[in-house]
Specification:
Layout (H helix, E strand, L loop, with lengths): L23 H4 L5 E12 L2 E12 L2 E6 L6 H9 L6 E6 L2 E2 L6 H8 E4 L10 H5 L6 H4 L3 H10 L3 H4 L12 H14 L4 E5 L7 H14 L4 E5 L3 H7 L2 E6 L2 E7 H6 L4 H9 L11
Helix pairs in contact: 6-8, 8-9
Length: about 280
């Protein structure tokens, strides 16, 4: 396979961040930029994980990120969320640099919700799990309406409304994942990032989560890392193809799946793998 790192100059972003900015007005809808990433690089044990990556997220919509294992997809989410800190470049959220976020890292992680592949629920009630991130005086208020609202947003309310005081760990895996989404929503994040959120779930749970994400994407940006190309098609929106820490191609999801422009993307769709040596840092 052709070495993908030789195509770095052709890499684009969600809004085609490149030197040719004169065409951006045709690509950008009338929305504000919620997240902007410029020249993001990350190294681990001498290996370049992210390589001068640029992208933008607008006010709403779903963005799927695909690519082979080790492409840097999860690392990108962790950098934006603040879990990975030793990156170089710039990440701004609502116009504020993430490394100078008001009230620190915990506040940033509430603003940028991140949900992993394996659901993490706490050994307490379903209601207390939803409220876990709420602190101070807000915790002491009657939050029944907030709990109901978040569980409805996560497509879980109808299944647990009569047992909110039950231990959350008794829920099925799919229900636990939806509970994690509800818990993230309770702190009112501006952006929701999900890393393989349905990889281990049954089709019914997968469909419920996808429907929930599509609904949420009408009012906020949703980013989903996935290896499931059919899920990408169902979710719609935009899709990014990454390999070796480089953003190779981006387009409307259906367009990218049906008529990819880059040979690297076509070969990934055919072989589901990418054996390209990483590009050396300058």
């Amino acid at each position: 396979m052709n070495t993908i790192h030789n195509s770095a100059q052709a890499a684009t972003s969600i809004t085609s961040l490149s030197e040719k900015t004169d065409s951006q007005s045709e690509l950008l809808p009338a929305q504000n930029i919620r997240v902007q990433v410029n020249k993001l690089s990350l190294k681990r044990s001498g290996r370049l994980i992210l390589n001068k990556l640029n992208l933008r997220l607008l006010d709403c919509g779903i963005t799927s990120i695909i690519g082979p294992s080790g492409a840097g997809k999860t690392s990108l989410l962790r950098c934006v969320n603040g879990l990975d800190k030793d990156w170089k470049g710039d990440i701004t959220i609502d116009g504020i640099a993430s490394k100078r976020w008001p009230k620190g890292e915990d506040a940033l992680r509430q603003h940028i919700g991140l949900i992993g592949q394996k659901p993490t629920v706490f050994p307490c009630s379903i209601a207390n799990n939803v409220m876990f991130g709420i602190r101070g005086k807000l915790r002491k208020k009657d939050n029944s309406e907030l709990i109901e609202h978040c569980l409805k947003q996560a497509a879980l309310w109808d299944e647990v409304c009569d047992r909110l005081d039950h231990n959350a760990q008794t829920l099925s895996l799919g229900q636990q994942q939806r509970l994690c989404i509800a818990r993230a929503l309770a702190v009112k994040p501006a952006v929701l990032l999900l890393d393989e959120p349905t990889a281990s779930l049954d089709p019914r749970s997968k469909n419920k989560i996808e429907a929930s994400l599509q609904s949420l994407s009408k009012t906020m940006p949703i980013v989903v890392v996935t290896h499931d190309l059919e899920q990408v098609r169902r979710l719609g929106g935009h899709t990014l193809f990454m390999c070796d820490g480089i953003l190779i191609e981006q387009a409307n999801s259906a367009t990218l799946l049906d008529t990819p422009q880059r040979v690297e993307t076509r070969e990934f769709f055919q072989w589901s793998s990418c054996d390209c040596p990483p590009e050396e840092n300058e």
